[in-house]
Amino acid sequence: MGEPVFKAGEIAMALLGENIPAVGPRMKTRTDAMSAVKQYVSAIEGLVKFTEKPYRVMFSRQSDGRYMMVIKGSGNTLELMHNFDELTMKRFQRSFKKGMFIITSFFEEGGSLECMALTEGLGAVMYVPRDG
Questions:
Q1: How confident is the model at residue 3 (pLDDT cuts 50, 70, 90)?
Q2: Where do the domains of the chain lie?
């Protein structure tokens, strides 16, 4: 379909600020999470940097029944994140009211899940204008 960025295991999601969804892979360490988010930012920048045309964000069903997040640019397609379960995908779609979301990563520390967008300021803020 497109170029895969990073084959992640489990996907995590958090609502930040004014209910802006932040999504990304759930990693075991801060170092792994930092590496993953840097890969995402680099791939997204390469897709949208030199185009004035809007990109589209969509979900595509995987062969195992889960979903992947896909970004379609002008001529290129990026398989951004794999392994969204249906519940997480629906939660993301419901919270995506402002047309903005953050691609980041998460890591486990001290028994809780930490978001790299909050702890390190790392992630890609994506804005997709709504029709209408």
A1: very low
A2: 3-127
